[in-house]
Amino acid sequence: MRKFKSVNELVNTLKPDYPVYCIRTDEIKKSIKFFKDNFPGKILYAVKTNPHEKVIKHIIANGVKDFDVASLNEIKLIRKINSDVKLHFMHTIKSKESISSAYFNYGVKSFSIDNKDELRKILEATNQAKDLKLFVRIAISNEHAEIDLSRKFGALPSEALGLVRLCKEHSKKLGISFHVGSQCMEKISYSKGIREISNIIKKTKIVPDIINIGGGFPAVYPDLKPEPLEKYMDEIKKSLKNLKLNKLPEIICEPGRAIVAESGSTIVKVILRKKQNLYINDGTYGSLFDAGVPNFIFPSKMITDGRIQSKKLSSFSFFGPTCDSLDYMKGPFLLPNNIKEGDYIELGQLGAYGLTFRTNFNGFYSNEIFEVNDKPIMTIHEESKEKVNSLVA
């Protein structure tokens, strides 16, 4: 993979007519270090967030040895990269064939369920295996998340009780999990989830071997600025302590966005300007899906070959390159008022889901990926004033 010192160097060297994706490996290292230093348990990276081989290898190199996979193809991908890491099939709805192949061909022993039929499938597909880790995923409110996952996944509390009892009988290790939703903006969601697990423990008299608090850890965006992640970790630790168990179960989590969001960005070119609408060469059918219907506002930066940028910033909306009018990104994206056709824009925080959602619709597809060493446009890992002051001193 070709490397550049900065996005500016990349643009001024290549002057690309196609969208370009950038990877910053230092940001992956920084995010993993934060979780290893602050989360009270094991990290399972959610592969769906960014499955690029360079990203996966760098995540492994920085000490993550467990992966949350959602399909047989993700399992094959990770096994191709590394045969020693542990895989956890955390999608609650799986075909019998994928369960069987995961177990017998790829050594996957860890499965998530939220209903009795899924348990039956797992037992049948693995020939009643006795070495399974079964996670009962319970439904909890996703009210503080930007993307709600609770309508599709999770057993209701009344259903979870019987499911926990059944899985206890059929598993070598029992786990209970929840998910607060993607881009969770309030740390209290995690304490609510842990309280639900506490209620299940009290009613069933069964203490799980593992508690999985899922993903949902947020990144920072221009209009979405959560509390520091340290506050989320403090809330989780306090809530686990409130379980008042003689021995705390193993604790795991499934971060994705918080690990890789800052590591990726997309460089697009302005094809046309119509007043406050910029027509660009990537869009919702490419790496900018989340800027469409979910209306994520990505941090933006204009890049030129030295032309003076206006100090006055204006709000812009984007249209992508396809013939579909749904290829629209409302924004607002703040950029210099004098931006025009031929200028380039860097859009940040696309390490999460930027590569995952690309399609070949209308033939607009780019797989130009490079490594850059400059800083991301935004970061949630700001150094505290005390650290900065100590360095100055």
What structural category arises from helix and sheet content? alpha/beta
Q: Which residues sit in consecutive blocks of at least 5 with pLDDT less than 50?
A: 383-393
Over the alpha carbons, how many angstroms does the gyration radius reach? Answer: 22 Å
Helix content: 25-40%
Terminal CA distance reads 39 Å
SSE string: EHEHEHEHEHEHEEHEEHEHEHEEEEEEEH
DSSP helical segment count: 11
Overall form: elongated
Topology (SSEs and partners):
Blueprint: E1 3-4, H1 7-14, E2 20-23, H2 25-38, E3 42-46, H3 53-61, E4 66-69, H4 72-81, E5 86-89, H5 96-106, E6 110-113, H6 116-125, E7 133-137, E8 145-147, H7 157-170, E9 173-177, E10 182-184, H8 188-204, E11 210-212, H9 229-241, E12 250-253, H10 257-260, E13 264-274, E14 277-280, E15 300-303, E16 313-319, E17 328-336, E18 344-347, E19 369-372, H11 385-392
Parallel strand pairs: 1-19, 2-19, 3-4, 3-12, 4-5, 5-6, 6-7, 7-9, 9-11, 11-12, 14-16
Antiparallel strand pairs: 2-13, 8-10, 13-14, 13-18, 15-18, 16-17
Helix pairs in contact: 4-5, 5-6, 7-8, 8-9
